[in-house]
């Protein structure tokens, strides 16, 4: 395995200033639509990076569940490692690794807790087994075996049999409010195209080309 020799050229396209929308949400929506049309698996998967109070970073893949001019939304257990990190340090980063189209999108911003009403609305839309699983899993806690988890799942299935599954108070969501959004398009010879949108006062965005 000569990993240091693994390489390829990025030849699918380029990105010019004239190609960009005036705001990053419109640009993101267009790129996401192209990904959907290409029938790529898990187009909403993103890497969420957080850091705890000591500065130790952590990363994990989560699913984007909504976005608009206010920011990017995801849901999670509010007692998980990511939630503890966000409580200590709400500055986060999102990475969308769309390598199938030789693209990446990086979002830098601040995570804010969603309202109970927003969390309730999304929780009701989840498949029933996913709702039950939210009760059964104390995310990030150590457990002695998988059987413990499956037993808890069965316990809550029985508890809510024939009933609506309520949203646990320890389950909710966050909106990442961006202050910078970078769009990366691979190019030949590692001369990639990079543009970053930086938030200005009044809801405007400044666009800069970055050296690769």
Automatic annotation (TrEMBL):
The keyword Cytoplasm does not apply. Binds 1 FMN per subunit. SUPFAM superfamilies: FMN-binding split barrel. Keywords: Flavoprotein, FMN, Oxidoreductase, Pyridoxine biosynthesis. Its cofactor is FMN. Coiled coil: none annotated. It holds the Pfam family PNP_phzG_C. Residues 171-212 form the Pyridoxine 5'-phosphate oxidase dimerisation C-terminal domain. The keyword Transcription regulation does not apply. It is an enzyme of class 1 (oxidoreductase). Pathway: Cofactor metabolism; pyridoxal 5'-phosphate salvage; pyridoxal 5'-phosphate from pyridoxamine 5'-phosphate: step 1/1; Cofactor metabolism; pyridoxal 5'-phosphate salvage; pyridoxal 5'-phosphate from pyridoxine 5'-phosphate: step 1/1. Residues 34-158 form the Pyridoxamine 5'-phosphate oxidase N-terminal domain. It catalyses: pyridoxamine 5'-phosphate + O2 + H2O = pyridoxal 5'-phosphate + H2O2 + NH4(+); pyridoxine 5'-phosphate + O2 = pyridoxal 5'-phosphate + H2O2. Its EC number is 1.4.3.5. Substrate binds at residues 65, 122, 126, 130, 190-192. It comes from the Bacteria. Gene3D superfamilies: Electron Transport, Fmn-binding Protein, Chain A. Catalyzes the oxidation of either pyridoxine 5'-phosphate (PNP) or pyridoxamine 5'-phosphate (PMP) into pyridoxal 5'-phosphate (PLP). PANTHER family: PYRIDOXINE-5'-PHOSPHATE OXIDASE, PYRIDOXINE-5-PHOSPHATE OXIDASE. Homodimer. This is Pyridoxine/pyridoxamine 5'-phosphate oxidase. It comes from Microbulbifer bruguierae.
